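Below is a filled-in request sheet from our internal design queue. Each sheet records the structural input a requester submitted and the sequence that came back. We keep these sheets so that new team members can see what a complete request looks like end to end.

REQUESTER: design group, bay 2
PRIORITY: normal
MODE: inverse folding
CHAIN LENGTH: 315
BACKBONE (tokenized):
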């Protein structure tokens, strides 16, 4: 359910599926769909064409988690209490004010999609268990998947530290979208079903590694940490570029248009040769104009992804 209404028409992002006792299995499945940058194998999921909508029209409507119908209604009936509890949870544990964008019922609870207010900017999810037999929410048992919010926070701090380089990325995707008639996900889709990390319409960033644990700790101790100090720590560490994954996730702007391999190769070469991008490992996925509304993913059989095994490294 989308905030305050069933809205009109993501990420990784990173899109996740959270559903009770099958959480880990479902996360892996949904991650395989969107993050196919890690493998050339097919994900084995048959896409129902009824779920395919134009990416321009998609804002999260139709996104569903397994066996979440009952919990979805209970969550909606208790939305205000859930929002208050989730905001308190993120402030207490991560010292971060968040906006609650969407609640989606899962098998044993509700998955809550949030976005940080200001910097560091990131998206994340929390899970609130629900006792279906008693129609009650269990906010005192709220949890997040191990390491996911920490990685999202680190990605936001990374983007703060490399502000100028991130702006270069933004200028780059704006230019290629004009030159090659490409489009990204809607802002609403990112907010409502985006997942975790530093997310934008055209790319998402995830960060891992001990160096990022250090800047997370620094932020948790002092929320006014200066971006220059963050940059100094990251530059000094000479972190492995593979610790930061930057995934360009682009769609053809026009309907009934297949991903263009020639355009893909040109953009890939531009990513590899461009200067002024932040340190990290880069991948590119190019989709047609359609997105699976149930999974929030554009990855299909015709998606072009040549970086599955060899990402582009930026030192």
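RETURNED SEQUENCE:
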């Amino acid at each position: 359910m989308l905030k305050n209404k069933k809205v009109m028409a993501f990420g990784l992002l990173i899109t996740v599926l959270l559903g009770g006792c099958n959480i880990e299995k479902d996360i892996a499945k949904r991650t395989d769909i969107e993050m196919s940058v890690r493998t050339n194998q097919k994900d084995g999921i048959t896409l129902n064409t009824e779920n395919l909508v134009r990416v321009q029209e998609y804002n999260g409507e139709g996104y569903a988690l397994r066996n979440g119908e009952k919990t979805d209604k209970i969550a909606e009936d208790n939305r205000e209490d859930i929002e208050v509890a989730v905001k308190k949870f993120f402030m207490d544990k991560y010292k971060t004010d968040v906006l609650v964008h969407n609640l989606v019922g899962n098998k044993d609870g509700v998955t809550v999609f949030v976005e940080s207010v200001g910097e560091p900017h990131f998206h994340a999810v929390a899970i609130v268990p629900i006792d279906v037999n008693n129609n009650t929410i269990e906010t005192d048992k709220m949890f997040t998947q191990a390491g996911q919010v920490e990685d999202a926070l680190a990605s936001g701090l990374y983007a703060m530290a490399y502000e100028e380089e991130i702006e270069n990325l933004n200028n780059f995707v704006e230019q290629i979208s004009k030159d090659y008639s490409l489009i990204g996900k809607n802002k609403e889709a990112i907010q409502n079903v985006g997942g975790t990390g530093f997310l934008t319409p055209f790319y998402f960033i995830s960060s891992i590694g001990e160096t990022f644990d250090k800047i997370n700790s620094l932020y948790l101790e002092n929320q006014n940490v200066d971006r220059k100090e963050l940059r100094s720590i990251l530059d000094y560490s000479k972190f492995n570029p593979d610790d930061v994954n930057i995934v360009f996730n682009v769609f053809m702007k026009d309907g009934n248009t297949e991903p263009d391999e020639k355009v893909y190769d040109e953009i890939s070469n531009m990513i590899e040769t461009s200067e002024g991008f932040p340190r990290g490992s880069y991948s590119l996925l190019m989709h047609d104009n359609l997105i699976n509304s149930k999974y929030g993913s554009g990855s299909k059989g015709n998606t072009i992804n040549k970086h599955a095994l060899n990402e582009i490294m930026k030192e």
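SHEET NOTES:
- The two ends are 42 Å apart (CA to CA).
- Residues 3-46 have pLDDT under 50 and may be disordered.
FILED BY: M.R.
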